[in-house]
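Hey L., structure's done. Input below.
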Amino acid sequence: MSDVIEYMNRVGRQARGAARAVSRAETKLKNAALEAIAAAIEANEAALLAANAIDMEAGRKSGLEAALLDRLELTPGIVAGMAEGIRQIAALPDPVGEISDMAFRPSGIQVGKMRVPLGVIGIIYESRPNVTADAAALCLKSGNAAILRGGSEALHSNQAVARCIHAGLEKAGLPAEAVQVIETADRAAVGELITMSEYVDVIIPRGGKRLIERISAEARVPVIKHLHGICHVYLDDEADLEKALQIAFNAKTHRYGVCNAMETLLVSEEIAEQVLPELCGMYKEKGVELRGCLTTCKVVSGIIPATEEDWDTEYLAPILSIRVVKDVDEAIDHINQHGSGHTEAIVTENYTRSRRFLREVDSSSVMVNASTRFADGFEYGLGAEIGISTDKFHVRGPVGLEGLTSQKFIVLGDGQIRQ
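Output:
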């Protein structure tokens, strides 16, 4: 235990020192480092895949869930996507130093805001070695140092990615300590990371509900939470039925083990008999297990009766709960009671109802006539994301470059004194 404490404190000290260098770095230098990291990832594809194969084999032997194995796996396409994602971040405008809202006051001073880095960001996540590359790139471009703690199941993969990151940083002349990937699988390292307030400015946990709850309960550092995704699609009685079928099908079946996949389908009772038989047939062909309310079970045979627990469950699997509701009011009530504040969608051609849905549904992303799968930093034009924050303070929704910065007030004067 003492070894872990000593190690984590050394990591923290190094990160604090590196944060000063990164915060001062010009945009050109940060972009050069990102380009070098992307090139190193491409050049070391074979080493990355070999390291990932070790993790995948260990994961299968230990009985890792299918959803986690899916997130853990690296392929040549994913490796290429990691490099491309980093280059896209390099191409984005640099938020650091951006000045806004400048205005003269009666005293003659000008008051405005300047965007600044947060400092040292600790990120805790499970599986997904590509998150290591995304997180490093986003923190670097936004002028922050990063301490990354991936799951033990991805230890070899993450260390292989870390070597590429360090090679790129050193080539550009930035300290390798600007991005540190924790080398130990000891869970005590997490406990240290989330309590090192003298070294770490914010913690971003990205993983399962238990991980988020633990971090939120034990952290002594501010936390930007990425909670689970109990996402809903509501098919209104004034929906275009072809749009309804395609959106509801895509939102569930495009990928299962992701936080923006639909977990509960809500259908207006006015169109339930029109849309559910065909839609449920599409789901069954895809192998999706369906759990429905009493009305759903009457309309379509062979559906498992849903329990109250189903409405509060993030499956991350080919399982879907379906509920027939009276109208948009009941749909909104259900979402605000059972949702996790992640992403919700309405399919309707009624402008007034769509506006109500946008205004009254309390989630970080609310959509009209689009699949919940679009709730993603890349799709929103952020380049990449650290996660999707369901918090209401500081940042909400996909956390990109701006979400990893803060603002300070700046004042420009010409000798004014307060009378």
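The longest strand covers residues 110-117. The first helix runs from residue 2 to 24.

-- N.
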